[in-house]
Amino acid sequence: MTVAAPVTVASVSRPIEDYAMIGDRHTAALIGSNGSIDWLCLPRFDSGSCFAALLGDEDNGHWQLCPVGDYEVTRAYIEDSAALQTTFTTPTGVVTLLDVMPTGDQRIDVVRRVTGVKGTVRMRHEWVVRFEYGTANPWIRRRQEETDEPVITAVLGPDKLVLRGPRLPKPENFRHVDEFDVLEGQILTWSTTWLPSHFRTPGPHPYLVDETIHEEVEWVAGLDLTGVPHAHVVRRSLLTLHLMTHHETGGIVAAPTTSLPEDFGGERNWDYRYCWLRDAALTIISLIEAGATEEARFWRDWLLRAVAGDPADLQIMYAVDGARRLPELTLDGLRGYAGSRPVRIGNGAVGQRQTDVVGEVMLALEAARDSSLGQTDDTWNLQRLLVNHLADTWQDRDNGLWEIRGPLQNFTHSRVMVWVAFDRAVKAVERYSLEGEVDRWREVRDQVRAEVMEHGYDAERRTFTQHYDTHEVDASLLMLPLVGFVDGDDPRMLGTIEAVEKDLMRDGLPLRYRTQSGVDGLSGHEHPFLACSFWLVSAYAGAGRREEAHALFDRLCGFANDVGLLSEEYDPEQHRMVGNFPQAFSHLTLVQAAFQLRGTAAD
């Protein structure tokens, strides 16, 4: 791709697909093809940001290394790692930029290494730190360390950033800038380190770049992807899910970003930097199926801590460390991506009732139990508590998995996942001789199934419905065969697929539901939700429509950007990614669909 010289203030938001992610399993940074880190929260995924140009402009914080003038760009991850290498080709020469967040110790660092490949390239360096989501200028000092090493420190409240490098940028209008030549064979390395502001500035970092790359490549090499289509895309998806699993707590975030819009210029902008029980549970299932069980062990421990106490207090999401209070606030100091406001931090859906989450948790713990992890007394006691509480409350209306902000409904998907919760509890007792109120669970399971068949199925249209009081369909219904509620070739399921194709398809991709029905209580529209498209792949496979399943999967894998990442939604008309990025739900359903197609071929 060809990129023009950078301007001082970005007037137009860069396309979401223009970004790549690097991370260290504590947090993650988004880097544009122009060499600019435009989003980074420190020290955790759900901490405040220090670079927030993604949701505003360059004055809201960014860190850029790129050539002066016009250049062409190619980029790729180093093997199966999260180390990103960007190659800049200019009329006078070629340089590479290696970006990596080293793992293996307690420090939070971003390392950027420029290497002269050919000729001489004039480079520009900008380091613009803005804490508090791009709104607060820090106290910045240029200091000489005890090692005679000059550094720049940026301090505000509890946070400190330390910039190191062979030459440091100079202050200019509340930013630090520099220009310099890179010669062929020259290697220049900078790092930005986060630490609590009351800590002493640490010594030089050993960087651990090669060690980090080796660790990630070895992790991917341990996956079992035999027979899956588009294995390279599946590997990248699994590594992306791995990187969104917090190294210390085990919490799995839905995305590293907030407020990337589902509708450009609209209000459907949400903070996804938290741990949804549903998304995390389905992530764990995908990882276990690929042979990565250690994340499941960490998440299972996180789950026990996060939901400890009264099962009536169960939330649908938590902070990375399991904290419960996630008040939703708006940030008026940011203009929003593509002018999409409000920009939100926190998530008001934390207080919603979403009955399906117990079902997803039971599925994940079943997968862990059936794997090499086995069963623990604590996790089974938790499951018993959750299921017994659900037995008393399952008939209450809820907000559904799409976090509807309209009236509560009897959502069919929610009720099916209630059936899943009791079904998996019964099977756990039957298969592993665990103790539990199995007679009661069987009774409720049968009652739920009968109710869904009576009230959640439209016999005239031959389709399951979004909720009991509507004839509308919902793409979440495509999941019913995946959880064992009906067979994939059951006539009722075949009719549901046809109804989704008739009512929800846009350019061959399904929407979640028809927003014009008013069910969600929000204004505006949205684009096809990629997870729903991957569910349709699985539904086609289960229905025996293998050629269509493979064709759709091929198309969806083609939507990934040049480094294999997917956002929440996709605009097939403008060929643009939409929504928070990268999105765990998109990547986990990609993996799920790949395993549904494993070892098969189109008819």
Could you describe the 3D structure shown?
The chain has helices at residues 131-134, 209-221, 231-243, 277-289, 294-306, 357-370, 377-393, 412-432, 438-455, 491-503, 530-542, 546-557, 584-596; strands at 2-3, 19-23, 28-32, 36-41, 49-51, 62-67, 71-77, 84-90, 93-100, 108-128, 139-144, 150-156, 159-164, 170-171, 176-183, 187-196, 275-276, 317-318, 329-330, 344-345, 457-458, 463-464, 505-506, 509-510, 569-571, 576-578. The protein is globular, with a radius of gyration of 25 Å. The strands form six sheets. The protein has a 16-stranded antiparallel β-sheet that branches. Strands 17-18 form a two-stranded antiparallel ribbon. Mean pLDDT is 94; it is low at 2-11. The relative contact order is 0.10. The two termini are 37 Å apart. The chain has 603 residues and is α+β, with helices and mostly antiparallel strands. α7 (377-393) packs across α8 (412-432). The chain has two domains: 2-214, Beta-galactosidase, Chain A, domain 5, CATH 2.70.98; 222-596, Alpha/alpha barrel (Glycosyltransferase). A hairpin with a 4-residue loop joins β25 and β26. It has 13 helices and 26 strands.
